C-alpha cells in the first residue's frame, strides 16, 4: 500500500514552517510522497484571504519545487467553495483505494480538531499526524499519530504583517515565493 501525506493549508503565503513539518513527517513515517493541498475557502479562518486561490496555488508550487517528493494536490482549488476535509479525503480515498493517506496538521489544528466537519467519520478514513507548534497544546482525544519535529514559531499572519510593514522576510519563506509576492504586489508590497 502506498503511503501519501496530505499537507493541507491556506498557504497565504506558504513558509518554512510548512516545509519543515512536511519533510520531518515524510522521513519519520517513510512516506512515498507528500501532497501540498491548498484549500479554496478555509472552513475556520476569520481573516479575509488576501491572495487569490490561483496566487496561493502558485506560491505553493514555488515553495515545493526543489523537493522531488513534494507534489501539489489541486482538488480543493479546482472544486472551489468551502473546503471541508471530510469531503475531500472521501473523494481521494474513493479514487485511490490502494493508498493510505496521512493528514498532517500543526498544534493549533490538533487542539481544534474536534470541531471539524464530520470529524468522527474523517478519523476512520485518514490517519492524522500531528506536529508541535509554539503557543499551542497540541492535544486531542481523537486518534492521532505524533511526530517530533523542530518547533518553528512562524505563521503566515506574521509574514503578511512583516511584508505589509516593509520588513524583512528573508529565510522565513523560499526566495522564489518572496519574488512572486513582490512581483504580484501581494500583502501591501506594492
Ligand atoms: N510554524 C508552524 N508549526 C507547526 N505547524 C504549522 C506552522 N505553521 C503552520 N502550521 C500548520 O500548517 C497547516 C497549514 O497552516 P496555514 O496555511 O493555515 O498557515 P498558518 O501559518 O497557520 O496561517 P495563518 O497565520 O494565516 O493562520 C496547519 O495544519 C497548521 O497548523
Ligand atoms: O474540514 C474541516 O472542518 C476543517 C476545519 C479546519 C481546517 N481544515 C483543514 O485543515 C488544514 C489546515 O487549515 P488552516 O486553516 O490552518 O489552513 C486545511 O487543509 C483546512 O482546509 C478543515
TrEMBL record:
It catalyses: nicotinate beta-D-ribonucleotide + ATP + H(+) = deamido-NAD(+) + diphosphate. Keywords: ATP-binding, NAD, Nucleotide-binding, Nucleotidyltransferase, Pyridine nucleotide biosynthesis, Transferase. One of its GO terms (biological process) is NAD+ biosynthetic process. InterPro entries: Cyt_trans-like, NadD/NMNAT, Rossmann-like_a/b/a_fold. Catalyzes the reversible adenylation of nicotinate mononucleotide (NaMN) to nicotinic acid adenine dinucleotide (NaAD). HAMAP family: NaMN_adenylyltr. This is Probable nicotinate-nucleotide adenylyltransferase. It comes from Kurthia zopfii. The gene is nadD.
Amino acid at each position: 500500500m502506498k503511503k501519501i501525506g496530505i499537507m493541507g493549508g491556506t498557504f497565504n503565503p506558504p513558509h518554512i514552517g510548512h516545509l519543515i513539518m512536511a519533510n520531518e513527517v515524510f522521513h519519520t513515517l517513510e512516506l512515498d510522497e507528500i501532497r501540498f493541498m491548498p484549500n479554496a475557502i478555509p472552513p475556520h479562518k476569520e481573516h479575509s484571504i488576501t491572495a487569490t486561490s490561483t496566487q496561493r496555488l502558485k506560491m505553493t508550487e514555488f515553495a515545493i519545487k526543489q523537493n522531488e517528493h513534494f507534489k501539489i494536490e489541486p482538488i480543493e482549488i479546482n472544486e472551489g467553495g468551502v473546503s471541508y476535509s471530510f469531503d475531500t479525503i472521501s473523494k481521494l480515498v474513493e479514487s485511490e483505494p490502494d493508498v493510505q493517506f496521512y493528514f498532517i496538521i500543526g498544534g493549533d489544528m490538533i487542539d481544534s480538531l474536534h470541531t471539524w466537519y464530520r470529524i468522527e467519520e474523517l478519523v476512520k478514513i485518514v490517519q492524522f499526524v500531528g506536529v508541535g507548534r509554539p503557543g499551542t497544546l497540541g492535544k486531542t482525544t481523537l486518534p492521532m499519530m505524533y511526530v517530533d519535529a523542530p518547533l518553528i514559531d512562524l505563521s503566515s499572519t506574521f509574514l503578511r504583517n512583516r511584508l505589509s510593514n516593509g520588513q524583512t522576510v528573508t529565510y522565513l519563506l523560499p526566495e522564489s515565493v518572496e519574488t512572486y509576492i513582490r512581483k504580484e504586489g501581494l500583502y501591501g508590497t506594492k
